[in-house]
Structure formats: C-alpha cells, structure tokens
Amino acid sequence: MRVYNTMSKQKEEFKPLRDGEVRMYVCGPTVYDYTHLGHARTYIAFDVIRRYLEHKGYTVLMVMNFTDIDDKIIKRANETGEDPKKLAEKFLRLFLEDMKALKVKPADIYPRVTEHIQDIIEFVKKLEEKGYAYEGSDGVYFEVRKYQDYGKLSKINLEELRKGARVEPGEGKKNPEDFALWKKAKPGEPKWPSPWGEGRPGWHIECSTMSTKYLGEQFDIHGGGNDLIFPHHENEIAQTEACTGKEWVRYWLHTGFVMVRGEKMSKSLGNFVTIRELLQKYSPEVIRFFVLQKHYRSPLDYTEEGIQHAKNNLERLYNTLENIRIALEKAETPFKWDKEEFELYETIRDARKKFYEAMDDDFNTAEAMKPIFEVANAVNRYLERVEKPKESVLRKALEFFKMVSEVFGIFEDYFKESKETKEEELIELLVEVRSELRKQRNFELADRIRSKLRELGIQLEDTPQGTIWKRIEV
Ligand SMILES: Nc1ncnc2c1ncn2[C@@H]1O[C@H](COP(=O)(O)OP(=O)(O)OP(=O)(O)O)[C@@H](O)[C@H]1O
Ligand SMILES: [Zn+2]
C-alpha cells in the first residue's frame, strides 16, 4: 500500500511504526459554528482511510481534538452575547450529531483543549526549559529560529517568512515569525492559571500536547485539510520535535478543499452549505458518495448538479442491489454454472482486485468507484439474460458490495435492513410453529418457545386475532 506524504511530496510505501497497528490523529474543528460540507469532506475522507485500514486488518487508534477555546470562539461569543463555553459546547454536540448522521465512525478519543490545560502548560514549560520558548508581555512564544528544521513540511523559507511578517503593535514577541504558545488573558476572556499568569493556550500547542499524550511521541498518520499545512502543522512539528528530539509523525496526509465557484468553501467567505441543510434534501450516503467520487487530495467542486449526479449514481447501485434481492428469491441451487455465471464471476473477481489496487494507491476512491459500476452493470446484464439466476454467483456480487459498504460507508441501510428482515422472518416462523404446537395441545414446547423468545427480548401476546410480537428491553 502506498500513501502520499506531504512531507516528502511523494507516494511512499505504507509501513506503520508498530506491526498491525495504526495510530492516527486528525485535527478536529474549532467549534463555533455549524459544520459545512468542506469540513465534512475532510472528515469523511479520513473516515474512509480509517475504515480501509481496519478492513485491511490493522487495529486503528484514532484521536481527534476539539478546539473548544480559541480567538474565533471568543469573537463569536462576544458578537452573540453568549458564554464562550456554552457556545463551544453547543457546536461540539452539533458537530458530533452531524458526523453520526454522516456515518463517520467516531474517533476513539476526542480530547478537548479545556480539559487538557494542565498538560498543555507542562508541554510549554518543557519548551521553555529547553530554550525554545520565551515569555513576552502578552504571552509565551515559540522562538522559531531556534528550531533548525522549520519549514520542512510546508517548504516555507524562513527568510521569506520573516520578510512577509511583522510584529503587530501590542504583541510581545521578539521575532515576526514566532507564534504564541500561551496567551495572557485580556479582560473578560476565559482564563486559566499558569506560571505566566492567567490566560489560555495558543492554537497549535493543543495538537502537539494531546496527540502525544494519547498516541505517544511518535505515531503513524497526522491529517487535516490542506490549509492546515502552514502554519498549523508546521508549528505543531516545530513544538513537538523541539520537545522530544525525535521525528514525530510518519505520514502527513492532507485533503483538498471543497470549492464553490473557484473559491474555498469557508465560513469567512459565507459561501458554505451546512450539513444540516444538505441532509434535508439528500441522504447521508449521497453526501458520502459525492465526496468519494473524487480523490481526497483533489479539489472538489460543490454544485447542486454534482450532488444530484451522485444521487442518481447511488440510486443506480441501489437498484442493482434490489434486483439481486428479488432475484435471490427465485434463484436456483447451482447444480451447474454456465458461461453467463462464469462471466459474471470473472467481472466480480477482477473488480475486487481493481478496487483494492485503487485503494492501495493512496486511497484513490475515485478510481475505486469504477469497478463498483462494472459489477453493477454486469449483474444487471446477467439478470436480463438469464432466466434462472444462480444463487452462488449472486452471493459473490453481494459479498463484493458488502466489502464496498464496509469501506465506503454506503449501502449500509441495505445490508442492515436485510439482516433485520431476516430476523423478523425467523421470529414470524417461530410464532407460527408455536401456534401450531398449541393447536396440537403441545403446551410444554409452545411455552418453551415463548419464554426463550422473551429472554431474547421478543415478547409474544396471544390475542383473539392471533399471536402478535414486540421487542422489549431485557
Ligand atoms: N472547504 C474545505 N474543504 C475541505 N476541508 C476543509 C474546508 N474548510 C475547512 N476544512 C477542514 O476542516 C477542518 C476543520 O476546520 P476548522 O474548524 O479549522 O474550520 P475553519 O477554518 O474554522 O472553517 P472555515 O475555513 O470555514 O473558516 C480542517 O481540517 C480544515 O482544513
Ligand atoms: Zn491540529
């Protein structure tokens, strides 16, 4: 498997630091507004990367932070007259709801800045002890020129950076390129005690602190949107490697932007569409499908037609799945296979290979889509041509779609539904058998079925119209 590493600007063989385990950290949102499609693209992309790694047999430990205190939150709270803590809490909950709706698997750990202030202070203290940090009038700063490798991720040139930046009036830093590790509180701002007086952490330090706390001083994947490469990730690297003296992250992965008419979808430009709005019109799977039609590093243009197109394509696939379901009802036991079965089988076999090759090539979901449609088309053709379809070859197609479902997080309704339907059919069957037993006055066995079902959370009630059943808590 090969992944594109922003650090080396090329695809590299993927080899995690520990066998069989992938530890990954994805920068989470600053929670002061609704989640828009741009954010969702990034989180869906990392969700699929994580799902694929799990599918390949890795144990994945995933951490995603919440920036629940920050300039943007304070600014918004001041505008709306809300308490910044309450504001952050509200949007944090809404974000989790949105991710759940989009079937993004939850991170294993969601550390929040406000619950890790002490850890952050310790980290800054270490940087101070090692001579990388200094206290200025309004906060503690990281002295960029002390860290030799600055710029290695973004390839930014420190001299250029210096020329372009300046120390704003009121800022207590020595050099224009230095960045804040700790900000001293201004009147009315949320604050915590520290060796440098009351204040709050700078933005970058939280990710260095919380990622190393939970994933160790070295781990495999660190990700986020393209806009985080500089300065956020560059600064994270400087802080962490200055502190530990070790190479920190193996692979840096960055997602391309969702674009609207040539511009990045963003809150500040006001050109965004929220997940909530989209979910009123489209199913979560349509949104996922839309996002996955492009490779995660490419820009993704958002248009109404684009989503509509994704919707139609997904529907086509669902139709095929429905065709398989119907065909399975009349499918035959395969006493023999003919040319048609072998043709379909070979398409599925090749498609599976292509799917894995595409995903192994830097998680190329856009390429991986092609074999999905190849199988769908082949199944439809097979069902049109063959009068008595063979169960085994249809099951092969279903297995393929099930695999896609696991990795892409689509078709979940179909596979979940069919499992439940099966279960319901089995319950109906037992109810029928029990009624028959009662008619034959075999009450002992009938009661056994009833009490066993009850233990499993299915309650039977005998009514004049017959026996009905319902699910109960056990
Ligand atoms: N248009 C976009 N396309 C893809 N990813 C995006 C887009 N906008 C933001 N992201 C990513 O979403 C994640 C969360 O972003 P964050 O909460 O910092 O957003 P933000 O910068 O406040 O949002 P905005 O850019 O809308 O002001 C980051 O990884 C960021 O790179
Ligand atoms: Zn971060």
Give structural notes:
The chain is elongated and about 90 Å long. By secondary structure, it is α/β, with parallel strands linked by helices. Helix 9 packs across helix 10 and helix 10 (304-330) packs across helix 12. Helix content is 51%, strand content 15%. Strand 1 (2-5) and strand 2 (10-13) form a beta hairpin. A 4-stranded parallel β-sheet has the order 4-3-9-10, sandwiched between helices. Strands 5-6-7-8 form a 4-stranded antiparallel β-sheet. The model has no long low-confidence stretch (mean pLDDT 96). Residues 27, 29-30, 38-39, 41-42, 224-225, 227-228, 255, 257-258, 264-268 line the site of adenosine-5'-triphosphate.
Structural class given helices, strands, pairing? alpha/beta
Q: Strand count, sense and closure of the main sheet?
A: 4 strands, parallel
The residue fraction in helices comes out at 40-55%
- Ranges where pLDDT stays below 50 over 5 or more residues in a row are none
